[in-house]
Amino acid sequence: MSSVARLIEIVGARSSLGGRCEGTARGPLAVRAAGLAQRLGAARDLGDITARAVERRPGRDPGAALCAEVERYSLDLREIVESVLARGALPCVIGGDHSLGAATQAAVGRFARSRGWSAPGLLWIDAHTDCNTMETTPSGNLHGMMLAAVHGIDVPAFRRVVEGGLRDPKRTVYLGARDIDAGELDIVKRLGCRVITPDEIRRKGALAIAEEALSIAGADDGRLSVSFDLDSLDPTLAPGVDCHVEGGLDWNEASTLLERIGRHEGVLAVEVVEVNPAADRDGQTARLAVEAAALLCGRG
């Protein structure tokens, strides 16, 4: 079913526990204030899943209490996304830090499994590959580990969250990745994910890359989900994010990718994440998040 014809259901995920910037918890509020509902048109807003404040332990291990709270809100988010999918609507999850991706993507995997489908593909538009583990992470940030868990590698905070919802890494395509830790890169290569850098996008053209990514992620049955992290954009364009990485996509490149993906009939779920209004400049990152969500939901 085309995403254009489906009811969109918005779910906010108000959490900053996966990173180190508390402002990302207010991301869903900023994106709504920037005109999300008006831009999407026919959409139902289901409100927010909100993480409780938990003190982070210093060092690489964020601590058992924080991991337990990430697990709690992730399980709640997973349940809501599954219910949206069961109704035949298109979930549009707005974040919030990217650790929420474990819940959204596991929900898509679980829903597909309940229908007897193969695990859908995944387009991950991000400056990072988010495939660290507790052993490889240099930072201890859980928003850099959830995709390892979704691909079947043990990450304690997401162990229960990904049960029954694992995804096929050979149908995962990273777009815009340019800041990958050494241990993480080894994992991504071993898993067999396709990594496409901004340089490759510029060399081949955004539309050609979008077609290639869709052919990989949508192999066999066309079904896939997509996650858009605002740090995939260059920080001069999107300053309101947790992790600034130079050399990101410009808006022409990004919007070409997003519009083409949003026209793909097999899109099952959309995420737009890592909006940090505390670091934003006159709301410009939040406005780009609104436009990204609209394009991915087929509102080109």
Write the layout of secondary structure elements.
Blueprint: E1 8-14, H1 27-33, H2 36-40, E2 43-50, H3 64-86, E3 90-95, H4 101-114, E4 121-125, H5 146-150, E5 172-175, H6 182-191, E6 194-196, H7 198-204, H8 206-217, E7 224-229, H9 251-262, E8 267-273, H10 284-296
Helix pairs in contact: 1-10, 3-4, 7-8, 8-9, 9-10
Give an overview of the whole structure.
By secondary structure, this protein is α/β, with parallel strands linked by helices. It has a single domain (3-296), classed as Ureohydrolase domain (Arginase, Chain A). The chain has 10 helices and 8 strands. The chain has helices spanning 27-33, 36-40, 64-86, 101-114, 146-150, 182-191, 198-204, 206-217, 251-262, 284-296, and strands at 8-14, 43-50, 90-95, 121-125, 172-175, 194-196, 224-229, 267-273. Helix 6 links the parallel strand 5 (172-175) and strand 6 (194-196). The longest helix is centred in the N-terminal third of the chain and has 23 residues, at 64-86. It is globular and about 45 Å long. It starts with 7 loop residues before the first strand and ends with a helix.
